[in-house]
Write a structure and sequence with these properties.
By secondary structure, the chain is of the alpha/beta class. It is built from seven helices and five strands; from the N terminus they run βααβααβααβαβ. It has helices at about 5-15, 20-35, 40-50, 65-75, 85-100, 105-120, 130-135; strands at about 1-5, 35-40, 80, 125, 140. It has a five-stranded parallel β-sheet with strand order 3-2-1-4-5.
């Protein structure tokens, strides 16, 4: 099975201080033990770097060098499928933004959802369930919640 990875999942895997850290590690192991694949889009890595280096969010944020190293290691895992926007995903992004009357705070998640959908990804690992549930296209797996199998 292929799981679309949202930024929240990568943060939970990386930052030991977040409450969902252990649950995220267990979920990652279950995915990999089951020969699963994580699907990553470049903007997830960019958002990951932005967040984990922010001293306002974390007591001990990662240095830029460490965040880049971790981002690169995620991207180069053999169990990772790379996803990119294409004409279909950009069209779907615009359509969903209008159809659901979403504002500027929903731009990045909506683009990511459109990229997942246009690449055939139907299961998303995220703690931000509402960001993806609105589209009615995804099974949500929340490492710390009820969607965690």
């Amino acid at each position: 099975m292929i799981y679309g990875a949202d930024t929240t999942f990568l943060i939970q895997l990386t930052v030991a201080d977040v409450p969902e850290h252990k649950a995220a590690l267990r979920l990652r192991q279950r995915i990999l033990d089951g020969a699963g694949t994580l699907a990553l889009a470049p903007q997830v890595l960019a958002e990951f770097i932005h967040i984990v280096t922010d001293p306002r969010r974390f007591r001990s944020p990662l240095s830029m060098r460490e965040a880049l190293r971790r981002s690169s290691s995620w991207w180069h895992l053999s169990e990772v499928r790379h996803l990119y926007p294409d004409e279909e995903s950009i069209s779907l992004f615009h359509s969903w933004m209008e159809e659901h009357r979403l504002g500027r705070k929903r731009i990045l998640d909506t683009l990511l959802a459109a990229i997942f959908r246009s690449n055939g990804i139907r299961t998303v690992i995220t703690s931000d369930e509402e960001a993806f549930r609105i589209f009615g296209s995804f099974e949500i797996v929340n490492p710390a919640g009820s969607g965690n199998r």
